[in-house]
Amino acid sequence: MIQLIDKMKVYHIISFLFLCILLNSNFAQKKSIDSLKQVLFETRDDTSKAKLLVQIAKSIVGTDKEQAIKYYIEASKLETNKKKKAVIFNTIGLYNWQLGNYNNTREYYKESLALFEEINDSGWIGRVCNNYGIANWGLGNGNKALYLYQKGLKIRKAIKEWNGVAIILNNIGIIYQDWGLHDDALKWHNEALEISLEIKNTNSTAYSYANLGKCYENKLEYKTALKYYQLGYKTLQKNNKITRSNTLFLVHIGDIYEKTNDFDNAIKYYKESLKHAKRINNKNRIAISEYCIGRTYFELGKIDSVDKYINSSYKKSTKNGFADLIKNTQFLLSKIEEQKGNISKAFHYFKSATALKDSLFTKEKIAKFTNLQVKYNLGQKTRENENLRKNSEIQQLTISQQNNIRNIFMVGSIVILISLILITKSRVSQKKLNVKLKESEKNLLELNRNKDKFFSIISHDLKSPFNGILGATEMLVSDYDELTAEEAKEMIQIVRESSTKAYELLEGLLEWAQTQTGRMKYEFENIDVYEQSSKIIDLIKINAKNKNILLENNVEENTFVFADQKATETVLRNLIANAIKFTQPDGTIKIETEKRVDEIAISVSDNGIGMSEENKNKLFKIEVHHTTVGTNNEAGTGVGLILCKELVEKNNGKIWVESELGNGSKFTFTLPKSSTI
Description:
This protein is an alpha+beta fold.
């Protein structure tokens, strides 16, 4: 008994001493920060201020990352050394990413990369390329991310920064995962794991395990996926500290248990993830963990438990702009309210989620192909490349045979000399031919890549309106008796708008496809531009009247071009419709022509909202998907101007745009002047 009392005394003494040390440590840290702030207040030199601000930020980043970011931003404004300023920008980007502030992240990485490239710092360029690539991937720009990863990989391999190489290899693998090419992705991730194990880097090894787990999860091989997730989590625990990655692994493990219907274990790991996320104060990971817990409770039918977690996740997601998570929580809230019998609330959440889902397609990864599409396109490219190689071999064989024939008929030294000259010339021609073939192959591959991007965008765009149609009709069928007349009408309106969007997109795509397959026949004839534009104005004037827009046909009568009538009509109709879309009510649109030496320039100008230089550069490009909502929220398809460019060029003309933001736009295209009128 006495020994027990003595042990208790020792325990209390140790606890008291530990508490004193902890309090003293916190007090000392606060005193240190206060001292730095006092010195900062008294300092007048900008360089010294910048240094002090960075010191303060480093001191508080563990407890208040948001405040630390503010200090770093102030330091960046005062720092004059380019390298130090670039490091600060990279740090701000990193901490914004960790807090889930993704929009801010990309801008700071961009500034950081520009400065490091200016001073040619290879080590930092490779590092920031990776960070900047991750930010672009997270915000849906997969193509930009892949470009940055490849750039960073080349640099890091050159300077033998193997940890960085392993990280970028993993990130490239993630792009392949997004494309659905899981077997190809496994090659990248396994190469990354091999390097990570060789250099004995815990973080990159854990990262490789996580990505291998995700690949097998996508392949529905859950047992293998769980093995890699557990290996990754075990590896990460060797660091003896909690990071964002810990919460990531715990959610992954929970996902596997949920998918295999082991809900108790799923909730266990989700809650562990939530606990870690709260300790590091990562809002995005907290919201994700809460959503996962709520989703699992919903599967178990525990609605009361669901409400607590889902509502909390929804509030955090809405406050911080986590768009994809907002959409997921709204869909789940719709199901919850429907089970409770609150049809109006269910309808409200469903409607909001559907609208957000339709708007997210331009922000999501546009390179998400189906396996069938990707394999078909890759196979097609391989066949085309093989044909090019065979043609090159035939050309080389033909030239070789010609040389042999010349050699047979060589007689005497003069003939030999002449033959040598001919052979030399032939080799030069062969080299030129090979260069042309390589250039042709390069152009063909580039065209294929651009069309791949275009079709990946279109495939996603076509799915989006049909999702809205299916969701709305499902609710109409299941809950029709509970819906009010007004709610039912709204659902029908959703179906109508989604159907119209799908039809317009499909119509534009079919017209474009005709130009690409060669099935569109062009009948060139003399066309009166005045009559053509008048006809289109009559057809489209109801749209202009709805916005009280004045359509002025300033084309001179008897202005003739030599072109295909259907193509000319399609181009004019698209340009006038676009002008109506982007012109404010009570605006004016003018159709005019300018006669030149051998062509007629036809222009459609408006005094609408105009566009920035950045958006101008995106127009007419098949590889760039660009749509903008009109002044009355009119939706676009992104196909119209691409079709216009194809048709104008098929009619031996050119098309371009002049525009300033806020000052309207002027689209002009040329067609050959009629030679007989």
